[in-house]
């Protein structure tokens, strides 16, 4: 059985403008408030997107700093070109468009320094700090970058272990803990 109050039969415009005896605001002002109270589904989506953005960021920095930790003391021309290309590609296809655009501006102002492992690590630390500052995060002390990020499973002991070292990841770039290997 349906019960019908007088209000139920009124058109929406009448309900909001007459206020049914209550002091409801007119429809126009109710609508204007809407963006301040996003629907739960929209805010859940925004939270998920922010989490994914942060995760992709952490993963990308991990890749870049680990790669830099393993970058040779004396990189070949090809290795220097590869590092520049990697950075360049990120400025175009990094999965957060706004981040990619900002990163492209950064890289234009401070092009990658890939002439040696230590210089590449310093450069990367510096641009990461620029992103940190943009996001209002504390900057990282770049003197500590070599202790924060190390080559993959590549301790001097593993490096001495020859084949075992290579299997553990020391040989990814032909670079052991002691620097590039001669082939
Ligand atoms: C190229 C790039 C551009 C980005 N641009 C944006 C952007 O514009 N807007 C946005 O919201 N997010 C951006 N991000 C993501 C953002 O930088 C963070 O990755 C994300 O916010 C998660 O931050 P986090 O605090 O976990 O630490 P992260 O910044 O991801 O850092 C991971 C770890 O690296 C270490 N670390 C921090 N700073 C340095 C440093 N300078 N040198 C060496 N190690 C360091 C710390 O131990 C830290 O825990 C970008 C990511 C990348 C890779």
From TrEMBL:
<keyword id="KW-0285">Flavoprotein</keyword>
<dbReference type="GO" id="GO:0050660">
    <property type="term" value="F:flavin adenine dinucleotide binding"/>
</dbReference>
<dbReference type="GO" id="GO:0005739">
    <property type="term" value="C:mitochondrion"/>
</dbReference>
<protein>
    <recommendedName>
        <fullName>Sulfhydryl oxidase</fullName>
        <ecNumber>1.8.3.2</ecNumber>
    </recommendedName>
</protein>
<keyword id="KW-1015">Disulfide bond</keyword>
<dbReference type="GO" id="GO:0016971">
    <property type="term" value="F:flavin-dependent sulfhydryl oxidase activity"/>
</dbReference>
<comment type="function">
    <text>FAD-dependent sulfhydryl oxidase that catalyzes disulfide bond formation. Oxidizes thioredoxin in vitro. Required for the import and folding of small cysteine-containing proteins in the mitochondrial intermembrane space, and can act independently of the oxidoreductase MIA40. Can oxidize the cytochrome c oxidase assembly protein COX19, a typical substrate of MIA40.</text>
</comment>
<keyword id="KW-0274">FAD</keyword>
<dbReference type="InterPro" id="IPR039799">
    <property type="entry name" value="ALR/ERV"/>
</dbReference>
<feature type="domain" description="ERV/ALR sulfhydryl oxidase">
    <location>
        <begin position="49"/>
        <end position="149"/>
    </location>
</feature>
<keyword id="KW-0560">Oxidoreductase</keyword>
<dbReference type="InterPro" id="IPR017905">
    <property type="entry name" value="ERV/ALR_sulphydryl_oxidase"/>
</dbReference>
<dbReference type="InterPro" id="IPR036774">
    <property type="entry name" value="ERV/ALR_sulphydryl_oxid_sf"/>
</dbReference>
<dbReference type="Pfam" id="PF04777">
    <property type="entry name" value="Evr1_Alr"/>
</dbReference>
């Amino acid at each position: 059985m349906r019960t019908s109050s007088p209000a139920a039969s009124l058109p929406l415009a009448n309900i909001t403008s007459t206020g049914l005896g209550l002091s409801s605001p007119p429809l126009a002002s109710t609508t204007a408030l809407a963006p301040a109270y996003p629907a739960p589904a929209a805010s859940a989506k925004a939270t998920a997107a922010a989490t994914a953005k942060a995760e992709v960021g952490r993963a990308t920095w991990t890749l870049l700093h680990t790669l830099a930790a393993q970058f040779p003391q004396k990189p070949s021309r090809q290795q220097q070109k590869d590092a520049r290309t990697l950075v360049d590609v990120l400025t175009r296809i990094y999965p957060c468009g706004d981040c990619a655009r900002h990163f492209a501006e950064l890289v234009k102002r401070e092009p990658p320094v890939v002439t040696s492992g230590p210089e590449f690590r310093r450069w990367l630390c510096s641009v990461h700090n620029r992103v940190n500052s943009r996001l209002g995060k504390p900057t990282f002390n770049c003197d500590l970058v070599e202790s924060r990020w190390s080559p993959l499973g590549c301790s001097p002991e593993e490096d001495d272990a020859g084949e075992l070292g290579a299997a553990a990841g020391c040989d990814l770039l032909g670079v052991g803990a002691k620097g590039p290997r001669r082939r």
